[in-house]
Amino acid sequence: MQSIVSNSPYQTKTIGIFLGEEIKKTKTSQNKALIIALIGDLGAGKTVFIKGLMQGLGIKKKIVSPTFIIFRRLNNAYNRGAIYHIDAYRLKKEKDILSLGFKQILAGPKNIVIIEWAERIKKSVPSGAIWIKLEYGQKNNQRIISFL
Q1: Above 90 in pLDDT, residue 14?
Q2: What domains lie within the chain, and their CATH numbers?
Q3: What mean pLDDT value characterizes the chain?
Q4: Is the distance from CB of 110 to CB of 28 less than 8 angstroms?
Q5: How far apart are CA 24 and CA 131, in angstroms?
Q6: DSSP state letters, 107-139
Q7: How far is CA 74 from CA 83, 117, 142, 146, in A?
Q8: Are strands 81-87 and 34-40 parallel, antiparallel or unpaired?
C-alpha cells in the first residue's frame, strides 16, 4: 500500500490530475473497463480527487458528484470510450447497481469507471480495480490518500 499526504484540496486535486495523466499515457490491452474505486468518509475529498482525475483525463466539463442520479456518462476523447462517474452513496442494496447496467458498463474495454462510495458495492467491483482510500489527516484540510 502506498500513501500520499495532501495538505489542501488543491493538492488532493493535483494528485488526481497526475493519476489521470498517467492513465492517459498507459497503453493497455485489457478487454474490460478500467475501474477506479474510491472509499472514504463523507467530506474526505473523493469528489475533489475525482475532479482532478477527470481534468487529467482531459475532461473540460465541470464535474459534479452524481449523488442524486447515481451515475453520469462522459465522452472520453483520448481513447473514444466513455467515462462513467458513479456515486453509490444512495444505493439501498448492492444489487441496485446491476439494474443500472453496471455489468455492461464494465464490459466496455475502452470505458473508465470511477466509483465514489465503492465499499457499498464492493462485491460487484471486479478484481483488478484500483482501490483508493481517502482519510482525514491530523491537520485541518490534511488528507491521507492510500492506493490499496
Answers
A1: yes
A2: 2-147 (3.40.50.300)
A3: 89
A4: no
A5: 18
A6: H-TT-EEEEETGGGGGGGSPTT-EEEEEEE-SS
A7: 5, 19, 30, 26
A8: unpaired
Provide the 8-state DSSP code for 3.
Answer: E
Sheet holding 34-40, edge to edge: 2-6, 143-147, 130-136, 34-40, 112-116, 81-87, 71-76
Q: Residue for cell digits 498517467?
A: 22
Written as one letter, the residue type at 2 is Q
* Amino acid identity, position 144: I
Strand pairing category for 34-40 and 130-136: parallel
Q: Are 123 and 138 in contact (CB under 8 A)?
A: no
Q: Which residues lie closer than 8 Å to 92 by C-beta, 6 or more apart?
A: none
Other C-beta atoms within 10 Å of 80: how many? 8
Neighbours of 99 (CB within 10 A): 9
Locus of grid cell 474495454: 109
Instruction: Classify residue 18 by its DSSP letter.
Output: H
Element (H, E) at 96: none
Give yes or no for residue 64 having a pLDDT over 80. Answer: no
Distance of CA 112 to the CA centre of its chain: 9
130 against 30, higher pLDDT: 130
